[in-house]
From TrEMBL:
SUPFAM superfamilies: P-loop containing nucleoside triphosphate hydrolases. Residues 93-275 form the Helicase ATP-binding domain. It catalyses: ATP + H2O = ADP + phosphate + H(+). The Q motif is unique to and characteristic of the DEAD box family of RNA helicases and controls ATP binding and hydrolysis. It comes from Mycena pura. This is ATP-dependent RNA helicase. Belongs to the DEAD box helicase family. PROSITE patterns: HELICASE_ATP_BIND_1, HELICASE_CTER. The keyword Translocase does not apply.
Amino acid sequence: MPATRTRRHRPKGPTTSRPLASNATATAKVSLPAPAPAPPAVPASGPVAAPSAPSARDETHFSVRRFADAPISEASKKGIKHECMSDVQAATLECALAGLDLLVQAKTGTGKTLAFLLPAVERLVKMKDLASRKISMLVLSPTRELALQIEEEAQTLIANHPLRVAHAIGGTNMSATGKRIMENPPRILIATPGRLVDHFENTPNFVHLFSDLRVIVYDEADRLLDQGFKKELDKILGFLPDRTKVQRQALLFSATVSQEIKVVAKGALAQKYKFISTLRDDEVNTHEHVPQQSIIVPFAKHLAATFAFLQQDRLLHNGASKVMIFLPTARLVGFYYEALSQLPRGTLPPIYEIHSRKSQPARIKAADAFKDAREGVLISSDVTARGMDFPGVTLIIQPGLPANAEQYIHRLGRTARAGAGGRGMIILDEAEAFFLRDRTISGLGITPVPSAATAGSYRLDASLLAAASATTDALVARVSAETKAQAYRAFLGFYNSSLRALRWTRDDLVAHGGHFAAEALGWAGPQLPEIDKKTVGKMGLKGVRGLNIVVSEPRPPRGVPRQPRN
Ligand SMILES: Nc1ncnc2c1ncn2[C@@H]1O[C@H](COP(=O)(O)OP(=O)(O)OP(=O)(O)O)[C@@H](O)[C@H]1O
């Protein structure tokens, strides 16, 4: 079955937030208390002093320019639910309408989707010479969920235009989608790169649908242009008509555009492209009104610290606590989900999980449920880190190292969207603390979590952590051995790719993995979880002592152990 959906946005829930009082610059560290006592039946509640007041909207990224006065069609105006443009929409409209290629940078949650959809749609409806039964506009998205979200926004915008939009994304029935698209080609196609390549290679005549392509959009352009998608992007461009022979507009949008990406992006843009940024020269890349905090605790206490902040956010946002927890790999998401799901009903808001190892219908179900939820906890890998617009998220928790500074910024950007408030919390082991000294990250104003109670603030000290650990240790004890073994291997796989930054040798990695298994996962067996000989080889850990290596049955080629997945 293709992943077709019909859903409507519910109005944004109230988002409450208030800047935190602490201005300290050192990093908070919590020294560990003695081993935790027996777990209480009801988890310890947080130390929050007072609910925070609703935050003022951050108006700086919304202009006073009205859509009603813009040089766009009445049909588009009817499809737009906002009165005034955001900065990025106002800054790019005329250039995009004029058909220029654009590379655009604007903060997360400031309306980039409409900024590329609107002018592109306007241009299409004015083009009289479009070939019939062809795709005129292609939007590339790095993730499936984001593709569906863009499709939904496009659907709203074009409701009064004679245009149709469809998607082609991984995890859905490819032949059914291919057949539908070939029988009735949409004017606008939203696609993920891998699936698009699959269609080009395997759906007969698919490539002919693109012979008159007029607009190509790269949403989350820096992610699409990085090494991870290079192979697919090269193939896609190879299937599309030669840029020198057709007039095709390219629109590249992202919240993060590094100098490196600016260079790479030139390959996707016409020579006379324009770079537009709505960030002031001296401005940091996250929203000023989003307090961001850090805490340094051992890996073994990351789950407990997460649980303590979940409880505190619930108290702060009475009935409207909506938290996203971002973990480095799919298997670690699975571990957190299995642990926190054991809590007695009602201890936390409803918990959802999303990552690449779930089926696509399950992913869509979780994303939709969290979108619609007034309160909830979404435990996620980086599949939802970029672009996803979940209304009313109050707190982003990041236990463990983000893949890079950009990913930290995009994850944080799931809160405080469209001028709303929100907060961020990053939980790191001492070995990971270097991340806070990263040039980009150190400029973001992340402050240590205070240990003393402050009105409307989170806090953490050794006794709060011990109380939270008492609960989470009991939860972890009930997590299945398989989930723990997978989390252990994911830990090794993920941190293996950051050895230099961590200043770990391969022996250190294996030793830390062992501690993680024993202390964070409560692994009690005489042997560590098994790890396949081939995986050990791929990780470059051959000859390192301290692993429980097994030789598994040969698997069919598609199931070969891979890099840790999101
Ligand atoms: N002009 C506007 N006024 C108010 N809200 C808007 C406006 N334009 C878009 N929005 C809303 O702002 C939210 C964020 O928009 P969008 O998802 O396009 O942000 P984005 O800049 O693409 O974010 P990200 O960088 O995370 O991808 C959405 O809920 C959208 O409906």
